[in-house]
Amino acid sequence: MAYKKTMSAAAQKIMPGLNENALKVSVDKFLKSISFTAQGEVEKAIRAAIAGGRIDGHETFTAAVSVSSEKIGLNITIYSKIEL
Fold first, then answer.
1. 57 close to 84: Cβ distance less than 8 angstroms
2. What angle do CA 39, 80, 77 make, to 5 degrees?
3. What pTM, to 2 d.p., does this model score?
4. Are 43 and 23 in contact (CB under 8 A)?
5. I want to staple 7 with a disulfide (CB 3.0 to 4.6 A). Which of 11, 26, 46, 74 is the partner?
6. What is the dihedral of CA 66, 70, 74, 75, to 10 degrees?
7. What is the percentage of the chain residues whose pLDDT exceeds 90?
8. Strand 60-69 vs strand 74-83: parallel, antiparallel, or unpaired?
9. CA–CA separation, 57 vs 83, rounded Å?
């Protein structure tokens, strides 16, 4: 199911130059890049932790990802569990 959100008439008056499609495509591209890179790094770290004896490969642990941009005032951290 596709997610589609359109700006309200009031928002369009405040941000008349905002191209919603370009915004969505650009943010989607950014998030896909993060996802691809992060997945590889997490998998590599887990394999190294198992090889180093820090974990046995059958546990659950919490991991976090942070996204920030000073220019737009964004600073979020998302926590989630990884179950092996």
1. yes
2. 90
3. 0.70
4. no
5. 11
6. 40
7. 79
8. antiparallel
9. 9
**Residue 61 in contact with residue 83, Cβ under 8 Å?**
no
Rg (CA), the chain: 19
User: Both tokens of residue 36?
Assistant: 């691809």
Q: What is the DSSP string of the chain?
A: --------HHHHHH-TT--HHHHHHHHHHHHHHHHHHHHHHHHHHHHHHHHTTS--S--EEEEEEEEEETTTTEEEEEEEEEE-
- C-alpha triplet 56, 60, 64: angle, nearest 5°: 115
